[in-house]
């Protein structure tokens, strides 16, 4: 089977191929040279022997914490650490990798969502529900890989120099029952918690609004440290980054009108709290 055939429908690099497989082979060689069984490496790094096996055959993508610890335990001298950036990129579907890199470096992130609670706001349970419902079905290893990648993105909130982040979301998303009441209750609590951060503003677009500036889809505006603003828009089986002034200006105009049409942040969080009390 070709490498392209092993990829899933949205361009994710398939477990067992590409960079994860190269990393796994290097990890195995270093482990064998160090005279360690998989169970022993797992014990020293805090993982099971089965997980080490998955890493070595490229079925799962390890996080940066494991890579650094394994590099230390195996005396690799930075050989494994050099894989961290590539492995982080490999966690994401191919179409999102450029946007993920921009997200890690952004000083501003402004999002409109109509289909799902934004990934930066998702709880682990909500994210797992979303990926489990995906069609065509994803295998369990890919689901866990994507959940981990989604949660890792939320480190943006912990940066020493906090970026300015704003969300506009459709009210209908707050009423969805995906995953059951407990999952949605946890998700509403998460929105309230993050929405109270000083650098974050959450706004809800009420269902009863008679005018709407973004009927043609969701999008994101990204502010870079170099003073540029870049647009990002989702599409079927892919997405696209926009840097030309005209397209970005159009997105800025839509987002500005959206924020004026949506409930203000304080009223939006009050609505989320009201819905939480009703769950």
- Enumerate the strands of the largest sheet in spatial order, edge to edge or round the barrel: 3-2-1-4-5-6
Can you summarize the main beta sheet? 6 strands, mixed
Order of helices and strands: HHHHHHHEHHEHHEEEEHH
The oligomeric status of these chains comes to single chain
Terminal-residue CA separation: 48 Å
Round the mean pLDDT to the nearest integer and report it.
87
Strand segment tally: 6
Class from secondary-structure proportions: alpha/beta
Tertiary shape: globular
Structure description:
- This protein is α/β, with parallel strands linked by helices and 279 residues long.
- The protein has helices at 3-6, 18-33, 38-45, 49-56, 64-73, 84-90, 97-105, 124-132, 140-153, 172-175, 181-195, 245-261, 265-278, and strands spanning 108-113, 164-170, 200-205, 219-223, 229-235, 238-242.
- A six-stranded mixed β-sheet has the order 3-2-1-4-5-6, sandwiched between helices.
- A hairpin with a 5-residue loop joins strand 4 and strand 5 (229-235).
- Helix 3 crosses helix 4 (49-56), helix 8 runs antiparallel to helix 9 and helix 11 (181-195) packs antiparallel against helix 13 (265-278).
- The N and C termini lie far apart (48 Å).
């Amino acid at each position: 089977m070709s490498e392209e055939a092993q990829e899933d429908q949205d361009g994710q690099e398939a477990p067992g191929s590409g960079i994860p497989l190269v990393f796994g082979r290097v990890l195995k060689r270093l482990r064998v040279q160090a005279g360690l069984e998989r169970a022993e490496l797992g014990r020293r790094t805090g993982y099971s022997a089965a997980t080490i096996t998955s890493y070595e055959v490229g079925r799962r993508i390890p996080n940066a914490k494991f890579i650094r610890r394994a590099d230390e335990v195996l005396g690799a001298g930075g050989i494994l650490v050099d894989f961290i950036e590539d492995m982080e990129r490999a966690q994401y579907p191919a179409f999102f990798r450029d946007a993920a890199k921009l997200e890690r470096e952004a000083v501003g992130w402004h999002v409109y969502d109509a289909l799902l609670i934004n990934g930066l706001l998702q709880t682990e349970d909500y994210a797992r529900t979303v990926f489990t419902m995906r069609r065509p079905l994803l295998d369990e290893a890919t689901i866990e890989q994507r959940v981990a990648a989604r949660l890792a993105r939320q480190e943006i909130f912990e940066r020493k120099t906090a970026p300015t982040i704003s969300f506009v979301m459709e009210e209908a998303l707050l009423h969805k029952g995906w995953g059951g009441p407990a999952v949605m209750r946890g998700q509403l609590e998460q929105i309230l918690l993050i929405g109270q951060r000083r650098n974050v503003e959450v706004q809800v677009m009420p269902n009863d609004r008679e005018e709407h500036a973004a009927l043609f889809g969701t999008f994101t505006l990204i502010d870079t440290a170099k003073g540029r603003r870049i647009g990002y828009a989702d599409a079927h089986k892919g997405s696209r980054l926009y840097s030309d002034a005209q397209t970005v200006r159009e997105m800025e105009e839509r987002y500005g009108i959206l924020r004026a049409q949506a409930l203000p942040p304080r009223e939006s969080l009050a609505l989320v709290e009201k819905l939480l009390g009703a769950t």
